[in-house]
Amino acid sequence: MTAVSTRLAPLAALAAASVLAAACSTTTPAPTPPAASGAPMPVAGLDWHLTVDEPEAKLAYGIAESDELKLGLTCEKGSGRLEINAMRPAGARDLYLESGGETERFSARAEPSELHEGVFLSAQSRTSHPVFQRFRKVGWLADLQGDRRETYAPHAASAPDIERFFAFCG
Question: Domains of the chain by range and CATH?
Answer without folding.
Answer: 47-169 (2.60.40)
